[in-house]
Amino acid sequence: MTFMIKPISKVISLLVGKKKGQFPWSNSFLIKGAKTALIDTGCGIENLQALKKRYSIDYVINSHYHPDHSTGNWILA
Asked: pLDDT tens digit string along 8-37?
C-alpha cells in the first residue's frame, strides 16, 4: 500500500485510505497546527502506522463511530 497525503490547505491534508477510502475503509483528514489531529482512523492499519512514524498525533476525532471510520483508533491511543 502506498502512503499518500494530499495537501488541501496549509494545515489540512487528506490521508487517502486503503482502496481509495472505499468501504470497508475511509479517508482521513490530518490537521496540523499547534496540535495535530486526525479525523477518522479507518484509512488502513499500514497507513496509520506510517503516519504515526511521521507525525505526533495529539488528538483523534471520529466523525461517527462506524467501523470504517474508527477501526484504527487503537493504533493512535
From this structure: 999 999 999 999 999 999 999 999 999 999
For 71, the 3-state DSSP assignment is: coil
End-to-end CA distance of the chain: 23
Span 59-77, pLDDT tens digits: 999 999 898 889 999 999 8
What number of other Cβ atoms are within 10 A of residue 51's Cβ? 23
State the DSSP string of 26-64. Answer: --EEEEESSSEEEE---S-HHHHHHHHHH----EEE-SS
Count of CB atoms situated within 10 Å of the CB of 10: 8
Helix (H, G, I), strand (E, B) or coil at 5: strand
